Amino acid sequence: MKTSIGIIGSGTWGMALARMLANSGNDVEVWSAISSEIDEMLLTHKQRNLPFMNIPNSIQFTKSIEKVCEEKDIILFAVPSVFVRSTARQARSYIPNGQIIVDVAKGIESDTLLTLTEVIRSELNFDRNHNDIKLVALSGPTHAEEVAKDIPTAIVSACEDIETAEIVQNIFMNTCMRVYTNTDVFGVELCGALKNIIALAAGICVGLGYGDNTKAALITRGLAEIKRLGAQMGCLEDTFDGLAGMGDLIVTATSAHSRNNKAGFFIGQGKTAEEAVHEIGMVVEGINALPAAMHLSEKYRVEMPIISAVNDVINHGENPRKAVNNLMQREKKTELSKSVSDIDFESTFLTYRSKSMKRVITYGTFDLLHYGHINLLRRAKALGDYLVVALSTDEFNWNSKQKKTYFSYEQRKQLLESIRYVDLVIPEDNWSQKRTDMKEYHIDTFVMGDDWREKFDFLKEEGVDVVYLPRTPEISSSKIKHDLYDANSVAESKLSHDDLDTDPNKI
Ligand code: C2G
Asked: Helix 116-124 crosses helix 84-91 at what angle (to 10 degrees)?
């Protein structure tokens, strides 16, 4: 079935995909913001950075962004990350509601922390006429230079709506390109953005004259950092072990094609970031991704030592060799992210976890953790595959609930994280965060004990199921405190009475 595809951006990746899609029999039209690029390709049938690749005659070119968006089955955004917002704004009035848009640029916007599909959505929806745009992130270990030579490649088509991900899978799949689907768009885009920074680190090490051991250590521990952040942000673990995570990290950190790797090499050799970018003459997305990565690391309180070290070298003039030494001298760590007892549970859970996971959230103080809480958490988890617990912070408890907890937030968090039903604990620091949490953590079901019945029905407007589960009647944190207090008072009065009976001096 012939598909009409509009490609916005005529860089190496845009043109390598244009060629592949045209050769698969699709109608392909390409637009560039730089009209001289269009003129050059019309004349030479070459993309300047892919001199060995012939541009198929069937590919149409246009200098009108309106025309490239007109009556297309798919619109492909293939512009550098820093131009995605302005390009989406420029294209907005020509893109119909309900359009499938595929983004292949990788990065996170430094000031908003939005991924690029979120940037496109926010720009298109600005006029409130684009609330049904279907956004797909297409990402993986895919050097344009190799795709341009039909070298066998694999990639991920990620969309919250699995049917849309499959439509894109069918269009981009061919004998040289194998496409997998994923619903964890945010996780795929987070990988795509942050792996470029690890590739910079790998290039710096090569520039310093270090070897494959160092590179392998960086790739392994770099993925662990990205995975830690992703888990805290509610992403799927499969995503990080998959093509968009591990796959793309390997290809970007080890390949001579990688601009991030090359830029890192020049920096390891003593050039500044500016000099390195100038030397390469093309966008180095890893450098653009640093501010957002540091912001996310701080916002989600996730330690990311390699990314921080790259940031010190590139943005704070740290000596690369010293930065590597500091990383090597850090305090000793274990590789295990969970206690051994959880490993069995994790592997069992991951084996049976369905791909389109249902994500559940619940909120509470969970002080003096008791079986009533466990009953709630167990039943909440049974409603899905992934349970997020929003735990009331000490300040929120005191200022908004007038509750003084026995255990601190960190202690209550540690207890919850040791429960096998709980996958992620996030802070609840205000009453009104629930709506945004539903979006940010891609929640399908909101759960609370039925003492809250009807109080959170408004969350149905966010497209989530709202479920109130019967409380476990006879137990509560306050009851525990009262009973202990009463028991203590009885013991004290008994003790003083016993004293009177047995101590002759007291008679
Ligand atoms: N719960 C239960 N049975 C009990 C005690 C508690 O099912 N015997 C449930 C509560 O209904 C709640 C969860 O366990 O869903 C946590 O209870 P609390 O720690 O008391 O939470 P609460 O103070 O109700 O805070 O924004 C919502 C608030 O944070 C809820």
From this structure: 30
